[in-house]
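Researcher: We're teaching a course module on how sequence relates to structure. For the next exercise, students receive a sequence and then see the predicted structure as tokens, so they can try to spot secondary structure elements on their own. Here is the exercise chain.
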Amino acid sequence: MTSVYTSALTVLALSLNGCGQDYSLSPPADSEQITVTVKVPKELKAETMQVMYRSATCKRISQGPSGQRLESDGHHGFDVQLKRQGQSDLYQVKLPKDGGGACRWHLANVIFGVTYADPTRFGENVTAGAGGGVVVIFDYNNSPRGGAGIEVDGDLTIKKEYYPWLKENFLGGYSKRISLVGEGSIYLSYQALQARQVYFEPILHSDFTVYSTQPKVKKKGNHTTFTYPDGSVVADGQSQPDFLKLQMIRTGRDRDCFDVWRYANCPGRRPQLLPDWLPEPDQPGFGRYLIVDEWGNKLPSYFYRLVGENGEVFQGLTELNGRTNPLPESARALSKAEFPERVW
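Model: And here is the predicted structure for the students to work with:
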């Protein structure tokens, strides 16, 4: 048992059928490990990880609204600090998948993320706000933050872009917080049943801060004002910044360039062929390539034209998952990959 979680694996005070039992976790020595790694930008810090184990053996007993007996899986939660790996920007924790013990605990979910290490660099009395959170669920239960928004197979790699959001609030008491705004809500949630490696890399664009000021009086027509890095001011009733607008300001690209379904309308679209050859399980001797945009989004129904070293041409439309049609082994050596306008 490593020191990372030894102190956290304490006895959980539950009662089952009125009898005291040992609810402690006791991972077997040969338990599989799930490794969570976070690459932390220099302005941020890794937040404390919330870990939850569940047990179908040791039930939690409660009463329903009519006094009826309700049973649910027992759960055991604790906090863990991610440990810095040497002098690198990687922070990591290893958790046993099998929690062992009389209750036969299993790792159910983890909640972690990043936040600003020194909020006062944005001004006196500025505190750290929300954003930059991740939930990973390893079973079929909800986490304390709800269910999973995305299901993944195998290991999980998350690379997401974030912008600083300095917000000043007046209603309900004054506060000034520095948060992270990214694609989606405060927490990105995933179900990763087979994952043994979880990697999170938040990419912080610290030179593109968006500011918001809440109205001092709550009345119809008063909206929070957002001031974007390009100087534009918007007060359209939204409660958080427009992430795509921030992407557009930073890159100078059109909004359509960041939407996989509208990417074909992007005037400067930049498709690319990933180099990995993906063997086709049901067709020996055949494989596929994956075509994505510059942001890593898979491009469905996208026209490609591949030329082999011997001049053989392979062309068609990508499938919904961005993959080409099955191609023979001769397509592994390419002299050219083109993405012309589709003409049939």
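Model: If you want an answer key for the exercise: Residues 272-338 form one domain. The chain has two domains: 3-252, 272-338.
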